[in-house]
Amino acid sequence: MKIENSLTRFILRGLFAAGVCVAGAVLGASSALAQADPLADAKYVGEKRCLGCHQVENKHFGHTTHAKVFRQNPKNETEKSVCEACHGPGSKHAIDKNAGNKDFLISFTKEWGTPVEKQNAQCLNCHSGDQRIHWPGSTHDTNKIACSDCHNPMARFSASGLLKKPSITETCQTCHQQQRAEFQKRSHMPVPEGKMTCADCHNPHGSVTRPLLKADTVNEVCYPCHAEKRGPLLWEHAPVRENCLNCHGPHGSNHDKLLVASRPQICQQCHSPSVGHPGTFYNASATAAAGQIGGAAGQRVIGRSCQNCHSTIHGSNHPAGARFQR
Ligand code: HEC
Ligand code: HEC
Ligand code: HEC
Ligand code: HEC
Ligand code: HEC
Ligand code: HEC
Ligand code: HEC
Ligand code: HEC
Ligand code: HEC
Ligand code: HEC
Predict the structure, then answer these.
(1) Which among 201, 212, 218 is the best mutation to test ligand 6's pocket, defined by most ligand atoms within 8 Å of the CB?
(2) 83 C-alpha to center of ligand 2: Å?
(3) In whole angstroms, what is the distance from residue 43 CA to residue 89 CA?
(4) Is the pTM of this model over 0.70?
(5) Domain residue ranges of the chain, discontinuous segments joined by +
(6) How many angstroms separate the CA atoms of 100 and 228, rounded?
(7) Closest ligand 9 atom to 307 CA
(8) What's the burial of 295, exposed, middle or buried (CB within 10 Å: 0-12/13-18/19+)?
């Protein structure tokens, strides 16, 4: 009975798959015919034609990298066409009665409705590879983010990178409100202060690591700026070598030093307070936390708790540093 069932299912599935294949092929062929690229027989007309009707847009465009390179030092015919290098061949659009026809022009505004893949393909004609080697299939690609969601090549809004906003971080924060909020917390790296940006740790164009990290591991993201944590050290603290995020949040925390929990809880996630050792100290701190002892001196000691004695928490090079006390 069981065998029969699964056998039937197997056959049915096979038939179904075959049917879908045939239907798919027929559908594919007919829709390809129906949706033949309306720009297939369009011609490049050159930027003079465009400027006849688009002087206003050209005012700001003139100050961009593309305008300078394409006009002064074009490498090929596409670059020489300037506007059409991005917007596609314009012979059909550049006629008064056709100008509103959305099939006759590749545009990058939401209102115009050119499919995102088609928009991005225009840019990738010249910008595939390098930083964008992992763009295909990246989170931004699969979420249908357009190059023009972050870039606006029509004007120089940013000092570099032709971004939509004056800075990288502001560009990212148009969509990533949660991370923006995290960077407002008490402890954070100087991103809101403009001393570093989201792109110091992430590659928005795609990467081999989630979530779009710039390096192969979290720690490799951190080491370039925190070189003293890289080691190798004589005495390694295992969780440090494994992943900085065992103890730190990357974006922000209300605990000092970007810690993911307060002290000493941060240590006790992994080390149970044993009888005898730190016990004495720990009990005192617990008592203080309950408000039974106080005073500035007491608070200072308790605030650092385990690290009063275990001060080299990221590892030690001292011959006697096995317990991270020096
Ligand atoms: C005869 C005048 C004319 C010429 C020539 C012309 N355009 Fe346009 N273009 C228009 C008009 C009018 C619109 C606005 C259409 C609308 O919004 O309905 C427009 C809109 C556009 C848009 C904006 C689409 C959007 O997303 O809103 C782009 C991009 C554009 N043109 C590029 C070009 C390029 C590139 C050329 C040269 C190949 C060119 N145009 C030549 C008249 C012209
Ligand atoms: C490097 C690619 C590129 C080149 C070259 C380029 N454009 Fe654009 N254009 C874009 C993108 C991307 C947008 C969408 C900007 C946005 O997000 O609003 C755009 C938008 C436009 C718009 C819509 C209104 C606006 O300003 O946002 C017009 C009109 C236009 N371009 C015309 C032109 C003309 C005319 C030229 C040549 C003088 C030109 N473009 C050259 C990429 C390009
Ligand atoms: C015909 C080729 C071509 C196309 C199409 C093209 N670009 Fe470019 N782009 C260039 C060249 C050439 C440069 C100059 C720098 C260089 O040599 O890489 C450049 C530079 C840039 C820069 C760096 C600018 C700076 O000032 O730092 C950005 C960002 C950029 N392009 C984005 C885009 C986007 C987004 C699109 C699509 C809307 C696009 N490009 C379409 C050729 C192209
Ligand atoms: C999520 C935002 C985002 C998206 C989407 C995005 N970029 Fe960028 N891009 C950036 C940032 C940030 C920079 C760095 C700017 C700087 O250094 O000032 C950059 C830099 C660039 C540069 C100049 C540096 C280089 O790599 O040569 C080019 C060219 C470029 N992007 C092309 C593209 C193209 C093409 C696409 C679409 C396939 C795209 N970008 C999509 C954010 C984005
Ligand atoms: C137009 C909106 C938009 C902009 C602008 C934007 N992103 Fe995103 N980003 C998304 C969406 C949508 C996702 C996927 C859903 C999510 O995780 O929120 C995403 C996901 C991510 C992720 C998580 C990737 C993963 O694998 O889980 C990172 C990291 C990221 N973006 C970084 C950036 C950075 C850095 C910038 C600026 C250079 C930026 N984004 C700009 C829309 C945007
Ligand atoms: C100091 C490095 C660093 C900076 C700067 C940074 N990030 Fe991240 N980001 C990370 C790391 C590491 C993760 C992975 C977190 C994890 O795995 O739990 C991450 C995760 C993310 C995610 C995935 C969801 C999440 O929150 O875990 C998004 C989206 C993101 N970052 C966006 C941003 C944006 C936007 C900015 C700028 C405002 C930014 N990041 C700045 C290192 C950084
Ligand atoms: C582009 C450089 C850069 C990168 C990459 C970077 N940091 Fe930082 N980090 C800084 C700077 C700058 C400060 C602030 C130093 C100061 O104020 O003295 C800082 C401060 C810190 C602090 C102390 C925060 C405080 O409140 O005092 C911690 C913890 C930290 N980073 C962890 C990390 C971790 C974990 C990573 C990797 C996910 C990382 N950093 C990646 C530049 C960087
Ligand atoms: C086992 C938990 C733990 C791990 C894992 C960890 N840290 Fe820390 N980190 C701490 C504690 C606790 C402090 C606060 C030290 C203090 O106040 O004396 C700190 C402070 C820092 C500081 C600021 C003070 C200083 O020492 O420069 C930086 C920067 C830092 N960590 C970077 C990193 C980096 C980078 C990694 C990964 C290689 C990492 N941390 C992994 C617990 C950890
Ligand atoms: C994510 C888990 C984790 C966290 C959080 C953590 N540790 Fe550790 N710690 C370990 C591991 C694993 C070892 C290695 C134990 C071993 O080799 O037997 C270790 C070793 C140690 C040692 C040396 C012990 C020995 O036997 O060699 C000390 C001391 C220590 N940790 C103190 C701390 C302190 C203080 C904190 C808080 C700032 C802390 N740890 C946070 C996991 C953690
Ligand atoms: C008053 C100083 C002091 C404080 C505070 C302290 N320790 Fe220790 N700890 C020591 C000494 C001394 C040793 C070494 C014992 C030995 O070598 O046999 C040690 C050893 C350790 C070890 C190694 C394993 C063991 O039990 O011998 C771990 C893990 C450890 N401490 C974690 C912690 C944690 C977690 C805290 C905070 C809750 C803490 N310590 C607070 C002094 C202290």
Answers:
(1) 201
(2) 7
(3) 5
(4) yes
(5) 58-214, 229-308
(6) 60
(7) 35
(8) exposed
Residue type, 131: Q
Distance from the alpha carbon of residue 240 to the mean position of ligand 10, in angstroms: 17
Q: What is the pLDDT along the chain (326 residues), one digit of tens a residue?
A: 344 444 444 444 444 444 444 444 444 444 444 468 899 999 999 999 999 999 999 999 999 999 999 999 999 999 999 999 999 999 999 999 999 999 999 999 999 999 999 999 999 999 999 999 999 999 999 999 999 999 999 999 999 999 999 999 999 999 999 999 999 999 999 999 999 999 999 999 999 999 999 999 999 999 999 999 998 999 999 999 999 999 999 999 999 999 999 988 999 889 886 655 654 444 444 444 443 333 333 334 455 688 989 999 999 999 999 999 99
Q: What b/e readout covers 85-100, taking b as 16+ CB neighbours within 10 angstroms?
A: bbbbbbbbbbeeeeee
